[in-house]
Amino acid sequence: MPRHTWRKVRADAFGAEPAGDRLARVLASPNFADGAFQNPVPTRRLVYDRSPLELTHSQLTANRPRRVPAAAIPVHRLQPVELAEPPASGLRLTWLGHATVLAELDGRRVLFDPVWGERCSPFAWTGPRRLHPVPVPLAKLGPVDVVVISHDHYDHLDMATVRALARSAAVFAVPLGVGAHLEHWGVPADRIVELDWWESAEVAGLTLTAAPARHYCSRGPRTSPHLLWASWAVAGPDHRVFHSGDTGYFPGFAGIGEELGPFDATMVQIGAYSDFWPEVHMTPEEGVRAHLDLGGQLMLPIHWCTFNLAPHPWEEPAERTVAAAHALGARLAVPVPGRPFEPAEAPALRLWWRAVAAVPRGAEPLVPDLATPVTGHQVEDDEVTV
């Protein structure tokens, strides 16, 4: 690739900063103070009493053999015909890996944090690479009414995916300031809805509300002060769902549940946690607690399985989530990527990740007999492991 072209690709992936009327809205936000958006509670991006050398060493070496599966991850090959009929209950969820979820809600289709890229990185040649294929090509997913983005990190906001969806008729709902990226990548301004925390918009017969989250934005080496992050509540005439995006735990989940819930389903971040950044990502136990605070009926764990982003073992988020849900009485669905389900009749819990996890011989499982285990490397007939 010619040098000038490589530079343009890199600059495009970094996106754009808010300007003009968009910047004016940012500066007028009650959540903007001291030159930057503020979290709902004091928050550190990193724990600074740990040295940079410690962080680098942990990222490079901690649990290294276990941070990726020992065998191919089973993926349900999603066929368009499976989504052709509307869900009998009015609500169907399809987790497509990491934080990407298709929610079919009261006759509308909402796509959360869509990432179809091979790497969550500004570069094609480096950065965390996908550990399993996407369950369905984006072109075969079918029409989408609304695309909801939680924040601008590469594992939630993918330039190539946005550009592909820009050619559809979908409306994009994003936190305040993030629309600058989308316009830079070709999304028409009249198809971008930008919301501050607690602001709502009516889109395609649904009510979308940006809710607080405890995180930050950045597509470069420094935190972006003029871009907001958010969790999202989406309500139709008969159903409500919640998507956490990325967030540390904070007491505000109960208030979100009281104001915008109760929720038929929550999609909650449970992976990519670390002692080095405990305030901006939740542990599995905190994720289950957040789900219960929100008044969720069923929890779909997200933000794990697809990318190697933190020092914990690959399967640990799922194991710890199941253990916490059992201890606290939370209802849970943990499908393989790509398998649709209706929360009203969620599938039986199956510990499918154990078949491919790199668990040391003789290690005791966190969840001994609480769900149907899987042995060997067996998969369902309609799942692939390549």
Report on this model:
By secondary structure, the protein is an alpha/beta fold. It has one domain (9-52, 86-384): Metallo-beta-lactamase, Chain A (4-Layer Sandwich), CATH 3.60.15.10. The protein contains 8 helices and 18 strands. A 6-stranded mixed sheet has the order 4-5-6-7-8-9. The chain has a 6-stranded mixed sheet with strand order 10-11-12-13-14-15, with helices on one face. Helix 5 (179-184) links the parallel strand 8 and strand 9 (192-195). Helix 6 runs parallel beside helix 7 (284-293) and helix 7 (284-293) packs across helix 8 (316-328). The two termini are 29 Å apart.
Write the layout of secondary structure elements.
Elements: H1 3-14, H2 20-28, E1 32-33, E2 36-37, H3 52-61, E3 75-76, E4 91-97, E5 100-105, E6 108-112, E7 146-148, H4 159-166, E8 171-175, H5 179-184, E9 192-195, E10 200-203, E11 206-211, E12 231-235, E13 240-243, H6 252-260, E14 265-269, H7 284-293, E15 299-302, H8 316-328, E16 350-351, E17 372-373, E18 383-384
Parallel strand pairs: 6-7, 7-8, 8-9, 13-14, 14-15, 16-17
Antiparallel strand pairs: 1-2, 3-18, 4-5, 5-6, 10-11, 11-12, 12-13
